[in-house]
Each structure stands twice: as C-alpha cells, then as structure tokens.
Amino acid sequence: MSKWQDKDMQVIIGNLLRGGVLLSTAIVIIGGIIYLYRHGGQYPEYKTFHSQPIEFRTITGIFHSVWEGRGRGIIQLGILVLIATPIFRVAFSVVGYLVEKDYLYVAITLLVLCIILFSMLGGKAG
Predict the structure, then answer these.
(1) pLDDT tens string for the chain (126 positions)?
(2) How far is 26 from 12, CA to CA, in rounded Å?
(3) Among 1, 10, 17, 121, which lies 20 to 30 A Cα-Cα from 61?
(4) Helices 71-100 and 103-121: crossing angle, nearest 10°?
(5) Closest C-alpha among 88, 39, 80, 37 to residue 61
(6) Residue 108 placed within a domain
(7) Residues 6+ apart with CB under 8 A from 47
(8) Is residue 45 part of a domain?
C-alpha cells in the first residue's frame, strides 16, 4: 500500500471543488429553465420593492420548494450547494490531515471550520 501524499490530497480537493461548482451550476441551470418556462412571460414590477419570499429564507423552506418542483427553490438549492462546497473542502482537509497525522494542521483546520460554521449558524438575523 502506498503512502498518502500531499499531491493525492490536492487532487481530491481540486476534484471536490470542481465537482461542487459543476453540480451547483447544473442545479441552477435546471432551476432557471423551469423558472423561465413558468414565469418567462411575466413583466417585472420595479415600482415597489418585494423582498425574498419567506420560504426561501430557511433551508427547510428551500427543500420544500424543491420538492414542489418550483424553479426558484431549485435555483436556491444550487446556491446552497455552491456555498457548501468550500465548507466540504475544509472538512475533507481535516480528514486528510488526520490521515497524514499532521495534528497541528488538524487543529488549525478544525478551528477554521468552527469559525465558518459559527458565523453561518450562530449569526443574528434581523
């Protein structure tokens, strides 16, 4: 069995990032096609501001909208996948550093992952 090397980790991380971006792009395109098919003939009203509908402000609302086959929900899912891609990259880096037994980088990467997750989940909305 060959030893795990930095190059192997770099290739996997590169493929992970590339795959996440391609997957999110495909999801957004599919959602855009559905949205334009259903709403392409409507004219936008620019006189009054309409904020984001409430169902697109939560992850469960987005998944519910996707389950219903709504184009905007599918587009939002693609954006969530795009946001999650670098987070998965950092999480994979923790595993890679554990395999390499580089515990200093494990600690640093876990700290970065905690900061990212705290800033996303612990923030105050309002």
Answers:
(1) 456 677 888 888 899 999 999 999 999 999 999 999 988 888 878 888 877 788 888 888 999 999 999 999 999 999 999 999 999 999 999 998 898 888 999 999 999 999 998 888 776 654
(2) 21
(3) 17
(4) 160
(5) 80
(6) yes
(7) none
(8) no
Per-residue tokens: 73: 């929900």
The answer to whether residue 47 is domain-embedded is no
- Comparing CA positions, the residue from 80, 93, 81, 91 lying closest to residue 116 is 91
Q: Residue 75, CB half-sphere, CA atoms under 13 Å: how many?
A: 11
**Domain total in the chain:** 1
The whole-angstrom separation of Cα 96 and Cα 14 is 13
Q: What does pTM read for this prediction?
A: 0.81
CA atoms within 13 A on the CB side of 56: 14
Domain that holds residue 75: 8-39+54-120
From residue 8, alpha-carbon distances to 18, 35, 49, 93, 121 in Å are 15, 40, 50, 12, 32
